[in-house]
Amino acid sequence: MLTNAANLRGLVIRATDGELGTVDQLYFDDETWAIRYLTVETGGWLGGPQVLVSPFSVVNTDWEERRLDVALTKKQVENSPSIDTHLPVSRQHEAAYLGYYGYPYYWGGPYLWGPSEFPVGLDTSTMAASDALADRIQRESNDSHLRSSEAVTGYSIEATDGEIGHVDGFIVDYDAWAIRYIEVATRNWWPGKRVLVSPEWIELVSWAASKVRVALSREAIKNGPEYVESEPITREYENRLYFHYGRPPYWLADLERKPAFSLSGV
């Protein structure tokens, strides 16, 4: 299911023994555009710092109540490895975090979430990392390719023949916990129009220059299906989007990579 990332902000995170806080930002992987963590404002009960919650822990999303239920206790979160969300998160920090909760290392498998395309339904009780994988993590670069949704919002978008607008938001698949589209505001060229661009069409992201370059022409984007935030993103709309750009849809690739085993709750 798809929703604008703005709808996630402010969702209450409920543990098995009470509320943890509310969703603030998303940390996504700039290689796969999977959402690896939610940053959570904990308020007074934990002294105010932000903590990270992995989609591995999410067991239910209640949009009417604006709540995410997680398979965690408040004590678990309180004792989890400390990560400063205002600084880059290293692979070693992630390894400590995932190891503490018994989650799989998502970079240790062939799918979006390591052993699966979806984080929900995995049996994490047998996911302890091997010594060989742990050793490899220690030798890897500190860069875990995590970026904050807040930091990337506002980046300029450049087509093959010139600038077209800027990043104004994200469309999230909250089953796979992945960013499926970047919302592009084009008001400087075509007032009022917003369009969606798939991360798969991105050629380059320059973090130093705060710029995203896509393999599409300005004319193609100008004539593409308009995105209206107040309207749901249906499969019919997505089909029109991919047909317009002549690109294969992501769900066909997901089917080709689908694991042989089934996942409960998906």
Written account of the structure:
This protein has 266 residues and is an alpha+beta fold. It has 2 domains: 2-147, PRC-barrel domain (SH3 type barrels, Roll), CATH 2.30.30.240; 152-253, Photosynthetic Reaction Center, subunit H, domain 2 (Photosynthetic Reaction Center, Chain H, domain 2, Alpha-Beta Complex), CATH 3.90.50. The protein is built from 7 helices and 14 strands. The strands form 2 sheets. Strands 1, 9, 10, 11, 12, 13 and 14 form a 7-stranded mixed beta sheet that branches. Strands 2, 3, 4, 5, 6, 7 and 8 form a 7-stranded mixed beta sheet that branches.
Q: What helical percentage do the residues reach? A: 10-25%
Relative strand content: 25-35%
Tell me the span between the first and last alpha carbons: 11 Å
**Assigned CATH architecture of the largest domain:** Roll
Name of the CATH first level of the largest domain: Mainly Beta
Structural class: alpha+beta
The major beta sheet can be summarized as: 7 strands, mixed
In total, the number of domains comes to 2
CATH third-tier fold name of the largest domain: SH3 type barrels
